[in-house]
Known about the structure:
By secondary structure, the protein is mainly alpha-helical. It folds into 2 domains: about 1-75; about 75-148. About 85% of the residues lie in helices and about 5% in strands. The chain has a two-stranded antiparallel sheet with strand order 1-2. β1 (about 105) and β2 (about 110) form a beta hairpin. α1 packs antiparallel against α3, α3 packs across α4 (about 75-100) and α4 crosses α5.
Amino acid sequence: MSVQKIVTYVAALLGVVGLIFQITILGKGDDVIEMAALSGDYGVVSSMVSLAMIIIVIAVILTLAFSVMNLASDPAKLKKAMISIGAFLAVVLIAFLFSSGNETPLKDGEVLSATGSRLVETGLRTFYFLVVIAAGAMIYSGVRRLKN
């Protein structure tokens, strides 16, 4: 049995389970579900959320697996992907080196550690650097196209 058939059968099975949950939720009605939720019983709704999380995990795992298999089958694609990952990690490293961490009091009375603050700042700086790089690449591409 091929992988595609297995994926199709699992997708169909999860779709049927989701449909059963949906029919059950619609059959109960909003008021009954809301009253049960007020007493702490989330019943079928929490089952539907759990099913959605399972489907997301399966989708991510399959996406990663097929992407890795596709990259492994072509050395040129693998080399290009590794260069891209290395460039991204270089941007993150530069952002980390430019970041500083200070303990920060939060609204709920907790304190964000200096390390946590530095990681948050690293994420923000990485985002800003990538925005500048993307804008620069678009401008460069546009100017080059106008010259030709």
